[in-house]
Amino acid sequence: SGIFAVFGMHLYLRRVLSSGINAEYGELITLGTMFGKFSKTEKFKLHITALDFISSYAKQKVWLKPGAEQQYLYGNNVTKAGLGRISAGTEKYDGVVVYNMNDLPLGFGVAAKSTAECKTTEPNTIVVFHQADIGEYLRAESTMS
What we know:
The protein is built from 4 helices and 10 strands. It is an alpha+beta fold. It is elongated, with a radius of gyration of 18 Å.
């Protein structure tokens, strides 16, 4: 369990610790997982650091074929050719968590097609719009704050 807290423009999930921390006032800046940022126009952008939390509660899931994993981790959308499986009942524009075939969460995105549409669409059609992936840790390491 935890508490959501806003610090500046960032949203964090703060966890209550079972053991005490010995720190002077002003030394401890933040403790928790950053979920995302609010923009200057007050829109919220979910960060990849929230993936572990989101993946444990996800209802709509997408699994990628091994050949499509690298393309997704480079920030590309998912096409039907790279789609291994999709959760039943996924509707167009639902948020989805993207997994590899070994159930490792790779990122999250938005379904461009419903489960039913995915069955009849062409192989080069985009089925998931990319939002964030674990490759961002490497691509944007210096700006992850």
